[in-house]
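ingest -> validate -> predict -> emit
validate: passed (alphabet ok, no gaps, 149 aa)
predict: started
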Amino acid sequence: MFDGKPGFILVDCGLRLPLMKIWPVRRIKGFISLPGDKSISHRAALIAGVAEGPSELINFSTSRDCESTLKCLEQLGVIVTRSANTVTIQPPDQLRVPVGPLDCGNSGSTMRMLAGLLAGTPRSRVSTNRSWSGGVCVAGSRRHSAYFE
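emit:
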């Protein structure tokens, strides 16, 4: 909202910001770096965790949800190495059965995708933070399926 004084815009929160006029241009030259995509990062990590040989994931998302996915993969025997925005994943010959429930933190995406990945493996428990209503998912056993308790 313009307050009538030249050179400033009055914003609802009370801050006064300088007024700028932007002119059309024919071309823009430069580089931008976009943050890693959460959805793609989850999927890439899970696929890399069951691939043959190591994978390097560049521009991996730094979100807590994606970190939960990496921690769950580590519990399954996957070697995860983090360096800035790059993650290197070395899958084991076979995913190991975790000692306890796989903690997905507050990531429903991690829980849903892990349930599908683990459905064909020996019984594994996948749990989330209680603030998410997903509860506990048991993947595996029951004729290679995933079900909720």
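The chain has a mean pLDDT of 77.
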